[in-house]
Design goal:
449 residues; alpha+beta; Methyltransferase, Cobalt-precorrin-4 Transmethylase, Domain 2; flat; 4 domains; four-stranded mixed β-sheet; single chain; Heat Shock Protein 90; 21% strand
Amino acid sequence: MNEKKVLEILAGGESETVEFKRSFDKETLETVSVFANTKGGLIIIGVSRQGRIQGVVIGRETLRDWANQVVQGTGVQPSLESIECEGKTLVVISVAESHIRPVLYRGRPYKRVGSTNREMSVEEITRLISQGRGVTWDELPEIQASIDDLDLEKIKRFIELANRIERRPIPEEGEPLKVLVKLGLIQEGKPTRAAILLFGDRPQRFYPQAILKMGRFKSETLIIDDKEIEGTLFEQVEGAMLYFRDRLQTRFEFTGEPQRKVIWEYPLNALREAVINAICHRDYLSNALNQVRIYDDRAVVWNSGKLPEPLNPEKLKSEHESIPRNRKIAEMFFYAGYIERWGGGTLKILEECRRSELPEPDFIDDGYSFRIIFRKDILTEEYLRKLDLNERQIKAVVYVKEKVKITNREYQELCKVKKRTASDDLKGLQEQDIFERVGTHWERNFLCA
């Protein structure tokens, strides 16, 4: 590493992968373990927390001594390099991501949160160990359960469904338990966690957090009704769909066909995909519950598991790889026809919303959970004010949402302005992609708003 590169790093400040230290101390060893537990990182010795170069005095054996302390304290083999920067000596410690985790310091594992170190919880340690073994949480046997905790009738129904879907032919005359062995859901006589969640007699006896909480809200604090859906993961999906059919509003559209077309408040297929996504990819080590919240203007499907790397919300809007957090659960959902194709769920959600002429849903990953937010209409007064529209323009948008279109003359009458002002306001709405001109009037631009 050269001086120019170091100065670039210093200018960027501390982060999840960079830390500045005035001197080599015990906290340095802690940070080594943190970086080894995550993506790796750089520790620059001889720099203040603010990134000011102060330098450090080192002798002939200093780097070797520090390297020995790191190995003895953490078991990590670091790379140490001294660099002259603005006439002062700095030491850069490069730490690679460890293949064997968690890496401990003083018998405790640490993680990186922003630019600070924090001790890991038991849940996080378990997750890290599973990742290190190359298995997902649901693939491991449930040591507290036995074969008697599985419901044979539920397994038989799954076999019938899988054969009907024809993605994995399964001999129906075969014994249900032997089928689960072949599918990797029973290991050494023990049901896996996936088996309990998919075919258990009472899955919540082992995983009380594995429920789906649903509710209709007037505000964040005013709940009209709520329901907790338990049972197997398949039963939770079907329970959620029953809740949607009971609680969501509908309208009818006459198409000239003998039967009226039912238009749901939100497309049911998109909601189903979102619920399946949340159930398949949730973090079952977390005590947080998966939730569905229905408000007057939006519906939120909340998954306690964040997106696995390298996925991010933007990648979900195009063709992307499938990285299931729970491999066996996702696999069984695929065989049962609940998942159409790997990595295609979010694309189906987007397509269903477009087909229903609803705004594109928001995909939000806050680092702790993942949310899909469906909106009836993005053009709320709150949203319009964020676009710096004037009160006349906001009034016109509300008018068009009800009346479908507006002419320049109607705008003049509605807002009590002259033709020039009306023309300027309408042009501004067109430039914002909120309105589009159709002949002599303006309509809402559904492609962008």
